[in-house]
Amino acid sequence: MSEVPIRRLMVSDFRRIEGTRDLPFDAPVVLIHGPNGTGKTSVLSALELALTGHIRSMERQSDRYRAHLPFFGQPYATVRADVAEDVRAGTPGAPLTVNGTRLEGPPAFNDAAAKFYAERCYLDQTSLGRLLDLYQAREGNEQTALEKFVNELLGLEKLDALRDGLSDANDLRLLKKLAVGVDEAGREAKATATQLKEQSALRAEIRTEVVNARAATFDAIAGFHPEMTDGMTDRDLLGFVQSALNDDTIRAQSAAATLHQELIALGGRISALVERPTTQRIQETRTALAAATADKDTWDATDEATVRAWEAAAQAAGANLHSEPRIAVAHATSLALQDLDHASNIRAQAESVSKQLEAHRADLDVLQDRLADAHEHSSALVESLAALRTVIDNTNRCPVCDRDFTETGHHSLPVHIDTKLAELTTHGQQLVDLRNERNQLAALVTREEVEYTQLTAQLLPADQQQTLAQRHATLVELTTHIGGIEAAKANGADLTRRVRDLQQSLDNLEAASSEERHISNELAKYAALLQVNAPLAFDSFQTASTELLKQAEAQVARLTDNANQYRKASNETARLTAALERESAVVQSIADIAEHKKQWDDRVAEAKRRQEVAKEVHAAATQARTTIVHRVFTESLNEVWKTVFTRLAPDEEFIPSFGIPSATKKTFDIKLETTHRNGETSGPPQMMLSAGNLNTAALSLFLALHLAVEPIVPCLVFDDPVQAMDEVHVAQFAGLVRLLSKQNGRQVIIAVHERELFDYLALELSPAYENDELITIELGERATEEDQGITRHRWMPDPAIAN
Question: What CA–CA distance (Å, rounded) separates 213 from 412?
Fold first, then answer.
């Protein structure tokens, strides 16, 4: 059926499943059977991994469980699930591969469907017995799985967020911490007068600082500019000092300092140039480079062709020359020899199996003849004696020869014939044994024929065998020349390296010659700037540099004295500017404080009004939450759990249920309890229920949580869910599964190990109407048959009812 969410599962070399199995699941009900150890749990674990990318029951045991998923001896396992389009994620039909701890490929379900399947659709065998404990387990401050389910069902996140946000509104002290400005408004209003007094005193201090800074500025610049007068305003004074700082003296001092630093750097370059080689070495290096280049060209024309031809032959023979040539050829030779040995072994095995097959076929023909002769003789004699027995009376006279049988001295004739018939019956049992022997030998011949066919398919054709032998001979021949090839390649590498090194030395020597011309030009430029006559010959570079450096240092010292006076005036001007800005800021601050006092008073009044509104909303939200919690627990969760549990265990007196949590709390601390049929509350299910009914309670709780919400994935998957259940519980479970499948539209997948239970469920869950379908999958020995143990049961009309 195309409506079911899970359509097909492909599993290869996964846990107990060797090889590849393609299992259909496109039916409302799928039953899986197999004895213990044949792979039922492996199939369902592979299904969970293919759908969600995880196996939760194994994750609880070890975070390295994926390393144990491939079949023993296999490097990796592969699973793939085909699902409905509305729950699919990514590319349909993409496989998921497990290789050690690595997991490659996307799961079939999207995130929402995968989470719903893992939590509310799949109940594995190991979790059933401890499901109630798992639902109530808590790690740190996290919610239990049961609390998460209930919170999701109630949908109170927004309502709880509203109550939590308004809870502090009931206390004005807490409200002040949340509402920005409420707690500060009163304090700020009282502190305003104090702040005004402090700001007035500060303004007086700043006025004194302005007067002192103004006087210091006049004193700092009066020596250079006597035309400056005391009657200037603060704006005129600041403008005058700023124009003075832009004078050419300041710029000249900066340029002289820069020139001094450049001359120091140039002196270092001159020192390095003096230590470099002479022009004679340039010519020697050029001669050596020409000789090395000629040697390299000679090698390219001779040895390189030999090396390239050898490498081409090695690559054609299958050698991977990314590694050393000797290693590559040795590896390729080993692989070719292995292929030859493998082909020889396959041929020897095929001949051995062929001889055994001929011998067993001959034995089978002999048995067939023996069986035919014995059957013909036995059948004719039994029919004759039986017919003869019906016409013999108690006179012991033979109806054929008319002789009296008592003359033989034995028993009567009827007794003698009865004895013969009994012996022939025993001979019939021998015929059965002979037929069984014939059948066993026929099965052996069939297996040997399959094995011979497989071995024959692996045999290499004669041309491929000859090609493989020729490749091995070529590799052996190449090995004999590898010493010369390695020596030639090493010689070529040495020649290339020598040419490169000589070229680099020549480039360095020519660069030194260029540096000499550049330094001569630089000295001439600096001599012109400092108006100094300096010699520019190579042997006098250091003398000229020293003279120019002395002239630059003297000029920098003269200009620095002037610049210091301007900097002092600049510092005093900055102090005056800062004092004026602070005075302006204090005046503005006094005006702002008066305005803020009114704002604080208005905020306090508004906060009190809003507090009353928040109290009313908080009370309404609390009442609404209380109503929702009691309605959901009494009318939804507990009612669904009770209905499912009593259907599975109709005779149990104690009914498990949720204890109603306090509706005023933000989170739920949910406890499980039991209720007697008379309405009296009792202890938790672990205390009041038997082991079988405790499993029934866990199973019914799992079903209740699945049915309590609209399913994202409408399916239920069980791994041997009837543990410790008696026949009544099993019958009720079968009826419940039929109800879930036929009326609630759930796809149900069940794995069991008991043959009787499998046959019973297959009968109870058989198709009931048109287009209804049941798939049964039998693992173990049935998986090797032609249909691989997979049977589709489709609805067929009953001829008796139809007529």
Answer: 159
Q: Tell me, what amino acid is at 377?
A: H
pLDDT at 694 over 50: yes
φ/ψ of residue 609, rounded to 5? -65, -45
User: What gap in Å lies between CA 441 and CA 365, rounded to an integer?
Assistant: 10
Q: Could you please report the per-residue DSSP string of 267-299?
A: HHHHHHHHTS--HHHHHHHHHHHHHHHHHHHHH
Using CB atoms within 10 A of its CB, is residue 141 exposed (0-12), middle (13-18) or buried (19+)? exposed
Q: Any bridge partners for residue 654, and if so which?
A: 676
Whole-number Cα distances in Å, 444 to 104, 353, 369, 430, 451 = 42, 12, 18, 21, 11
Q: Write the DSSP symbol of residue 406.
A: G
* Residue 578: pLDDT band with limits 50, 70, 90: confident
Residue whose tokens read 């009353």: 612
Q: Residue 140 — left, alpha, or beta (φ > 0 → left; ψ -120 to 50 → alpha)?
A: left
Do 706 and 714 contact (CB within 8 A), yes or no? no
Pairing of strands 122-123, 715-719: parallel
88 Cβ neighbours under 8 A, 6+ residues apart: 108, 109, 110
Q: How many residues does the chain have?
A: 803
Element (H, E) at 656: strand 654-658
**pLDDT at residue 1, rounded to an integer:** 46
Round to whole Å and give the CA distance between 175 and 376: 108
Residue 779: helix, strand or coil by DSSP? Answer: coil
| pLDDT of amino acid 80 | 93
pLDDT at 230 over 70: no
How many Cβ atoms are within 10 Å of 794's Cβ, its own excluded?
Answer: 12
Pick from 32, 193, 100, 14: which is nearest to 779 by CA? 32
379: CB partners within 8 A, 6+ apart: none
129 three-class SS: coil
pLDDT number for residue 608 = 74
Give the chain's mean pLDDT: 75
Structure-token match 């024929």, residue found: 449
CB atoms within 10 A of CB 274: 11
Q: Are residues 506 and 282 in contact, defined by beta-carbon separation less than 8 angstroms? A: yes
Better pLDDT: 241 or 773: 773
Cβ-based burial of 293 (10 A; exposed 0-12, middle 13-18, buried ≥19):
middle
Q: Which two tokens stand for residue 291?
A: 């000789």
CA dist., res. 548 & res. 532, Å (int) = 7
Q: What per-residue confidence (pLDDT) applies to 687?
A: 86
Taking the C-alpha atoms of residue 656 and residue 294, their distance in angstroms, rounded to an integer, is: 98
411 forms beta bridges with: none
Q: Are strands 96-99 and 747-752 parallel, antiparallel or unpaired?
A: unpaired
Q: How far is CA 243 from the centre of its chain?
A: 70
pLDDT tens-digit map of 189-210: 777 767 777 878 888 888 888 7
Cβ neighbors of 1 (< 8 A, separation 6 or more) are 26, 27, 28, 771, 773
CA pair distance 504, 500, nearest whole angstrom: 6
Give 655-663 contacts, CB < 8 A, sequence gap 24+: 656/685, 656/689, 656/697, 656/700, 656/701, 658/150, 658/633, 660/629, 660/630, 660/633, 660/634, 661/629, 661/633, 663/625, 663/626, 663/628, 663/629, 663/630
pLDDT at 730 over 90: no
More confident residue, 606 or 410: 606
Query: Which residues, listed in sequence order, are joined to residue 83 by a DSSP beta bridge?
Result: 6
Structure token pair of residue 426: 């025993």
By the 8 A CB rule, do 570 and 241 touch?
yes
Helix or strand (DSSP H, E) at 382: helix 325-389
Count other C-beta atoms under 10 Å from residue 527's C-beta: 18
Q: CA separation (Å) from 665 to 242, 325, 627, 638? A: 71, 77, 13, 20
The partner residues of 11 in beta bridges, in order of sequence, read 21, 79
